[in-house]
Amino acid sequence: FLGSALYAQEGDYYHHLTAKGNPLFTHKYTADPAALVVGDTLWLYIGHDFEGGQKGYKLKDWLVFSTNDMANWTEHPVPLKIEDFAWAKSGDAYAGHVAERNGKYYWYISTNWTGIGVAVADNPAGPFKDALGKPLLTNEDCFASDHSWACIDPAIFTDDDGQPWIFWGNGECYYAKLKDNMVEIDGEIKQVNFDGFVFEEAPWIHKKDGIYYLTYASGFPEKIAYATASTIEGPWEYQGILNEIAGNSNTNHQSIVAFKDHWYFIYHNGGMQRGGTSFSRSVCIDPLYYNFDGTLKRVQMTTE
Ligand code: FUB
């Protein structure tokens, strides 16, 4: 069976897993991976789908895994649950993203109905605590909020000048500056728009050699598409599809990260293990390669 071997320990249950292929983990359903590199460790912050049979996105907590070598993974105790956000009435733990600033770790999370919140911790494994006691962004901040999940999928990007930005949305893609404290929006909320932009959700910004890359889920079932720009505020140029639908999941949700001199595309699909579906998803990792002109080679899902 392609997947990972699990070595579970009793007690505080740090799980030690050895990844042998995609999907990365087979003992739980995992979705919406957000990667963060801290020193020589890659951290993955992941949504936790319920097991089998459900008809909607049922996520109540988030999971954390770390690795130093992309082969041996440690699963940390669950650091954050939707119930840690008293204002999150719907109880749906949608996608998140963790960013580091001034030695603290900020976990931006999204919910159905009640928007985007942020929790803070002193180290990457937590414990994390709601930083605000209220949402950072709500549907009112998404001008076209005609559905309960309009204000989801936060993605943080800190530019070389130290300015942190937040991108998010469903149907429309919004962005704004964050203040140095990481828990307040600084100034105007703006919208991303360019020719060929068919945005569903899951924005992610990364930068390489002076080029800004905006990757995002496009269409439904979702494919990951991307655009490039020479400034964080655009103008963006559509570059095409990066990753086709993989497995039988209607959603895909990616992070892109450089770790130990290699670039990785980390995403989810629904087809890789016992009863996988759109609502029982599995995180996968594949290498990401650049062409000489800065465009990205398409990512084909592998099983190794
Ligand atoms: O996991 C719940 C939602 O499904 C996420 O917020 C979206 O990006 C999609 O993957």
Which descriptors would you attach to this protein?
0% helix; mainly beta; disordered N terminus; binds beta-L-arabinofuranose; 304 residues
Give the SSE map:
Blueprint: E1 4-7, E2 15-19, E3 29-38, E4 41-49, E5 59-67, E6 72-81, E7 93-101, E8 104-111, E9 115-121, E10 129-130, E11 155-158, E12 164-168, E13 174-178, E14 185-191, E15 201-208, E16 211-218, E17 223-229, E18 237-243, E19 255-259, E20 262-269, E21 282-287
Antiparallel strand pairs: 1-2, 2-6, 3-4, 4-5, 5-6, 7-8, 8-9, 9-10, 11-12, 12-13, 13-14, 15-16, 16-17, 17-18, 19-20, 20-21
Bound molecules: beta-L-arabinofuranose (FUB).
Distance between termini?
Answer: 12 Å
Order of helices and strands: EEEEEEEEEEEEEEEEEEEEE
Low-confidence stretches: 1-12
Summarize the biggest pleated sheet: 6 strands, antiparallel
Please tell me what the overall shape is: globular
Keywords: Carbohydrate metabolism, Glycosidase, Hydrolase, Polysaccharide degradation, Xylan degradation
Protein name: Beta-xylosidase
Family: Belongs to the glycosyl hydrolase 43 family.
GO biological process, one term: xylan catabolic process
Compact description:
With 304 residues, the chain is an all-beta fold. It is built from no helices and 21 strands.
Care to describe what's here?
The chain is mainly β and 304 residues long. Residues 1-12 have low confidence and may be disordered. It has no helices and 21 strands. It is globular, with a radius of gyration of 18 Å. It binds beta-L-arabinofuranose (FUB). Residues 31-32, 47, 57, 59, 94-95, 110, 152-153, 201-202, 251, 253 line the site of beta-L-arabinofuranose. The site of beta-L-arabinofuranose (FUB) has 14 residues, from strand 3, strand 7 and strand 15.
